[in-house]
């Protein structure tokens, strides 16, 4: 059966609530703006959490806007810069599934349409409210005949559309859950990249911290092979908050602890250590999923770089212990996970990589012995893989090979690459 993807706009496709942003634009110079901002935010949250009917919330918010066509232009410009990161990087999914993706929102077409059209979403697949204007272009209200302006509007709309197939709903609020509650969709995914409403999380079929997660669990084409929200990043010791925020903003699953607790050793994928923290050899040797370590100081005598290298773990540290560099180390960690860069690593060959489009990037870390690249390329040749670009750097211990291949390939290729005898670690980056 055909699949349909019903996607919310506010706080889902975009990071913000558009009406909240619009009122901040239109009331920029109003003497009571802070009180009105708060009133609109309260009305928004009450509706999203199911404490107030959508019609009551919408009417109350529109009355407080005092906005016009010029304000809407400014809003659109702002919203285009506020598209949620995981939607932004998965533009290719929308292009491939343009017929199946619907934007269904209690927001307004006047600002939704220009924001989502560049993502290959068809104009006829955008369902939202519309404003009414006076002759001078001031917003006077909205079309009250539109079902999306009513309580349970999304349910009413889908009943009218009569879509035949499997329908998946992605959103952050009560109106999105109502689709599941009414039986109109197969699964409801609570989207939490921007906001997590506890009352909605408790009702969801699946909590998806990013659009990557939704695509991953449904085995759909995606920009990155493994959702970053599934990579456990353990932060140990007195790490500055600005350093933590770098990794949190990038979408990694953060746990902050005073010590490297035993229960995390088997699952940790990234480790950020405060200056002065020590990682015991036995702990490091058992961290089999660990991909990178960041140390906010000089890692010498605190971490065994030899063991880390033997395990294919990339270490970044700050030899100068510069407190102004609190963001530098976590940024290097994130760039390694996102692109494969090992630039300024303490133990790996230093490699900076270009971002490539429409390819899969494969990382192969191996012992530095003769003939490994020949074996790697024999695998690609046997399987008729088209190599777009390839990079190799070595040091005395290891070789670090990056290969960008065309998007289509047999999964057998991955199995063969992992089975090369001197392989330390292998992963698909994106």
UniProtKB/TrEMBL annotation:
Enzyme Commission code(s) on record: 3.1.3.3
Catalysed reaction, written as an equation: O-phospho-L-serine + H2O = L-serine + phosphate; O-phospho-D-serine + H2O = D-serine + phosphate
Membrane-crossing segments per the record: none
Keywords assigned by UniProt, alphabetized: Amino-acid biosynthesis, Hydrolase, Magnesium, Metal-binding, Serine biosynthesis
Pathway recorded for this protein: Amino-acid biosynthesis; L-serine biosynthesis; L-serine from 3-phospho-D-glycerate: step 3/3
Coiled-coil regions listed: none
Entry's Gene Ontology BP terms: L-serine biosynthetic process
Top-level lineage group: Bacteria
Name recorded for this polypeptide: phosphoserine phosphatase
Gene Ontology CC annotation, any one: cytoplasm
UniProt entry tagged with the keyword Lyase: no
Residue span, ACT domain: 361-430
GO MF annotations, alphabetized: L-phosphoserine phosphatase activity; magnesium ion binding
Keyword Ribonucleoprotein: no
Requisite cofactors: Mg(2+)
């Amino acid at each position: 059966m055909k699949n349909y993807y019903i996607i919310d706009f506010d706080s889902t496709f975009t990071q913000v609530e558009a009406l909240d942003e619009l009122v901040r634009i239109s009331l920029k110079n109003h003497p009571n703006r802070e009180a009105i901002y708060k009133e609109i935010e309260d009305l928004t949250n009450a509706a999203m959490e199911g404490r107030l009917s959508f019609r009551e919330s919408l009417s109350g918010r529109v009355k407080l806007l005092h906005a016009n066509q010029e304000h809407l232009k400014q809003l659109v410009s702002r919203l285009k810069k506020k598209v949620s990161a995981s939607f932004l990087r998965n533009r290719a999914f929308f292009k491939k599934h343009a017929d199946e993706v619907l934007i269904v929102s209690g927001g307004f077409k006047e600002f939704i349409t220009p924001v989502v059209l560049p993502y290959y979403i068809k104009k006829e697949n955008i369902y939202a409210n519309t404003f009414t204007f006076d002759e001078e272009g001031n917003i006077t209200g909205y079309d009250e005949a539109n079902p999306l302006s009513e309580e349970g509007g999304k349910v009413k709309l889908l009943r009218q559309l009569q879509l035949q197939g499997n329908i998946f709903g992605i959103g952050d609020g009560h109106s999105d859950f109502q689709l599941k509650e009414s039986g109109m969709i197969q699964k409801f995914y609570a989207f939490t990249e921007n906001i997590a409403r506890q009352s909605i999380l408790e009702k969801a079929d699946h909590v998806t911290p990013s659009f990557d997660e939704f695509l991953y669990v449904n085995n759909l084409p995606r920009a990155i092979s493994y959702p970053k929200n599934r990579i456990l990043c353990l932060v140990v010791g007195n790490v500055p908050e600005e350093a933590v925020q770098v990794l949190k903003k990038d979408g990694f699953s953060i746990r902050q602890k005073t010590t490297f607790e035993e229960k995390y050793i088997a699952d940790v994928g990234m480790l950020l250590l405060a200056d002065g923290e020590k990682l015991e050899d036995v702990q490091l040797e058992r961290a089999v999923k660990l991909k990178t370590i960041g140390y906010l100081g000089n890692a010498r005598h605190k971490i065994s770089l030899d063991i880390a290298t033997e395990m294919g773990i990339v270490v970044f540290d700050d030899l100068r212990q510069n407190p102004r560099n609190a963001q530098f180390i976590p940024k290097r960690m994130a760039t390694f996970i996102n692109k494969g860069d090992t630039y300024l690593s303490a133990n790996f060959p230093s490699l900076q990589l270009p971002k490539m489009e429409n390819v899969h990037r494969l990382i192969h870390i191996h012992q530095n012995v003769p003939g490994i690249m020949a074996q790697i390329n024999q695998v690609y040749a046997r399987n008729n893989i088209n190599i777009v670009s390839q990079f190799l750097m070595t040091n005395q211990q290891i070789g670090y090979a990056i290969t960008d291949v065309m998007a289509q390939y047999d999964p057998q290729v991955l199995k063969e690459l992992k089975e090369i005898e001197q392989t330390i670690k292998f992963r698909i980056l994106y």
